[in-house]
């Protein structure tokens, strides 16, 4: 059973999500929070697997709460899905940069929400291509001033960055094939799409991606996209290195 915490300051929205989620046989809502501080406390107390996190909440917002969860080693298995009505590039970038494993707008289809919960609960955190590409657009829009602070072969220190802090490990640890796959991940390609592009089996591709995640100390594919751009491996608006 997937244990979910709902964090939103609007009671009606929480109630609607609770009804929707508890209709799924493998999901249960273990708590509701009206702000980010309550969400973090509930996650610790209820040992939640997934948090559906609103961004704009009083006292402690969803981005700060996500950062706190991502920075807590005791909560390493907890995954955060940002749910918001604000579908802006800045929020996509900030949420995933803070450590979120997914980003959905509140008017998404019910089946998409439940699927996202199941995906992140498995630890895969494989974002829908539209979300990944929105993140890429955000990074590309930032230009040289916003990304590319690190040399492609250098280190991007810091295990789980929050806004303004670097994410990831040493790109020099990657093989040429892994670099190639990282670039394709940064384009928003799924494992199946990467397998087709490189004439690999999906299982081999999944193994490569898992190794890249381990070597770069990244939580999920979303952080791999950020690492690829912030390291300079992929240039915003240009071809992959």
Summarize the structure.
By secondary structure, this protein is an alpha/beta fold. It has helices at residues 11-22, 36-46, 62-71, 89-98, 110-121, 129-146, 176-186, 191-198, 202-215, 221-230; strands spanning 2-7, 27-33, 50-53, 79-84, 102-105. It has 2 domains: 2-125, Response regulator (Rossmann fold); 145-230, 3-Layer(aba) Sandwich (Rossmann fold).
Structure description:
It contains ten helices and five strands. It is of the alpha/beta class. It has a five-stranded parallel sheet with strand order 2-1-3-4-5, with helices on both faces. The longest helix has 18 residues, at 129-146. The chain starts with a strand and ends in an 11-residue tail after the last helix.
Task: Offer a few descriptive terms.
single chain, 241 residues, alpha/beta, Rossmann fold, 2 domains, 5-stranded parallel beta sheet, 10 helices, 48% helix, globular
What is the second-level CATH architecture of the largest domain? 3-Layer(aba) Sandwich
* Count of discrete domains: 2
**What radius of gyration results from the CA coordinates?**
17 Å
Cα shape: globular
Series of H and E elements: EHEHEHEHEHHHHHH
Uncertain parts: 143-166
Largest sheet: 5 strands, parallel
Q: In the CATH hierarchy, what is the superfamily of the largest domain?
A: Response regulator
Quick one: CATH class of the largest domain?
Alpha Beta
Q: Percent of residues in helical segments?
A: 40-55%
Return the average pLDDT rounded to an integer.
Answer: 79
Spatial gap, N to C terminus = 42 Å
Strand residue percentage: 5-15%
């Amino acid at each position: 059973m997937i244990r979910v915490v709902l964090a939103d300051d609007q009671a009606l929205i929480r109630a609607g999500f609770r009804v929707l989620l508890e209709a799924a046989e493998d999901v249960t809502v273990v708590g509701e929070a009206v702000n980010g501080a309550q969400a973090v406390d509930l996650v610790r107390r209820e040992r939640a697997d997934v948090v559906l996190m609103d961004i704009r909440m009083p006292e402690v917002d969803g981005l700060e709460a996500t950062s706190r969860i991502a920075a807590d080693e005791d909560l390493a298995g907890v995954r955060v899905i940002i749910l918001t009505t604000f579908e802006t590039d800045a929020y996509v970038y900030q949420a995933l940069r803070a450590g979120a494993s997914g980003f959905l707008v509140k008017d998404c289809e019910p089946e998409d929400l439940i699927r996202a919960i199941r995906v992140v609960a498995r630890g895969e955190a494989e974002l829908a291509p539209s979300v990944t590409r929105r993140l890429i657009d955000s990074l590309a829009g930032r230009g040289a001033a916003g990304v590319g602070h690190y040399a492609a072969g250098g280190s991007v220190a810091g295990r789980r960055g929050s806004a303004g802090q670097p994410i990831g490990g040493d790109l020099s640890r990657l093989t040429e094939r892994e670099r190639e796959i990282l670039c394709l991940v940064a384009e928003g390609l799924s494992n199946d799409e990467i397998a087709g592009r490189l004439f690999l089996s999906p299982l081999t591709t999944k193994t490569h991606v898992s190794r890249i995640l381990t070597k770069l100390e990244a939580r999920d594919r979303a952080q791999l996209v950020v690492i690829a751009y912030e390291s300079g491996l992929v240039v915003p608006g240009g071809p992959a290195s």
